[in-house]
Amino acid sequence: MDQYTASLIVVGSEILNGQIVDTNTSYLARSLRTVGLSLQRVTVVPDVVDDIAKRIRSASQEYSVVFTSGGVGPAHNDVTYEAVAKAFRLKLESHQELVDMYSRMNPDQQEIRRLAVVPKPCKIINVNSTEVFPVISVKNTYVLPGSPKYFEAAVNTIVPQLKGRTPLHLEHINIKSNELSIVNILDKQAKRWDGKVRIGSYLQLEPQTFTRVTLEGSKEAVAEAKEEILYYLPVQKLVNLEHGLSRFQMNALLEDDEVYVKCALDIVKECYDRYKSDEVFISFNGGKDCTAVLHLAATVAKSRDISPLLCLYVTADAFPEVEAFVELASRYYDLTIVRKPRPVRSAVSALLEERHNLKASLMGTRKGDPGSANLQSFELTDPNWPRLMRVNPILNWSYSQVWSFLLKHNVPYCPLYDQGYTSLGSRSSTMKNPLLKDPNDPSSYLPAYTLTDKSAERRGRL
């Protein structure tokens, strides 16, 4: 028998025939988790003595603790006490302490004495609610009333006294994918965390269709497993990205053995070696290239306990999707975003006037960008610009390498890249790349990472 498991036997023909909806199960399950007990089985049985007794006898041998709900009133079909007695081969007898208690509670109702006829021996537990009332336990079985008001009060009294283990912690991840699309990921993670974290997935249909991935275990194990699972689930499909950059993601990137990634990381590290953290900012406009640089910088910053990162966002006729993504990135990476209007030169000047300490800017410039063919990884601004060191970690990356990096490390990016855009500028100067028209459906476009002609990256820019 697992010493940390529980079973609930719900007694009531009215539940089986649909007259009443059971709410006691979820309340008990949540309460048991707080003391490290896991509700492993719930059985609903009719008001039949033999059926109830059979379930109690079996459950009491298989689980460390058993609860029953319902069937303990004075009516002819309230037979749970009789079933408990039969399950444990005990006699039913009138318990004087219960007789006295019920007589005080209802002195004018002799019928209430029926509630005092219980299995012998049993333990009486006084429950404090709006009024004190008793419940009984026999061996490892607690016999509770079915009314949610009294059931919950009894649970609140009994469960804190149970000896479990570390309280069970439950978290979930919502993802806009069906279960089939992530089943292989979850299979591997379930094996990886077997015995430490219980992982489940459940299709949710309201208010919108999505899959909920649940994780249950100790708080520390759940947190660690969640970080790892989030790294492998498709980030663009996650409903909520508030969790932020995890240490698992950080370590995965720091351990990446791709030469182009290592070189970019070295440049970012050198930047933070040359300059103090408050002397560096990131030029960020929501595009794929500066998003890659942001992820590199955030990884290095997290490894050095640098927070928050400062970003300059130069705005001009931006897509709403870009604005929304910048806000999401701000929360995800814990950024301080400074917004300035175009032109870029004036925006940089205004920023430096406000923050005189700034000396370097991490940028998403690549040699394929206009006017960037002769740039170096560390390059001072031109004489007619505010004096600043431009740091270009991905200067030598190709279009394919940018997307390989973003997809491999599950980096969140602007959703416009999944709608046919390959290069983002202002709304008035940016269109979908015609080369990404879906050959099977000319009205739709393929994602940017499917572009095969890398020289056509800017085909959508006017």
From TrEMBL:
Region described as Disordered: 432-462
EC number: 2.7.7.2
Catalytic activity: FMN + ATP + H(+) = FAD + diphosphate
CDD domains to which the protein is assigned, alphabetical: FAD_synthase
Gene3D superfamilies: HUPs (3.40.50.620), MoaB/Mog-like domain (3.40.980.10)
Record's protein name: FAD synthase
Keyword Metal-binding: no
Enzyme class, UniProt record, top EC level: transferase
Gene source species: Dinoponera quadriceps (South American ant)
Keyword list, A-Z: ATP-binding, FAD, Flavoprotein, FMN, Nucleotide-binding, Nucleotidyltransferase, Transferase
Gene: LOC106741290
Similarity field: In the N-terminal section; belongs to the MoaB/Mog family.
GO function terms (MF aspect): ATP binding; FMN adenylyltransferase activity
Keyword Flavoprotein listed: yes
Domain MoaB/Mog intervals: 7-165
GO biological process: FAD biosynthetic process
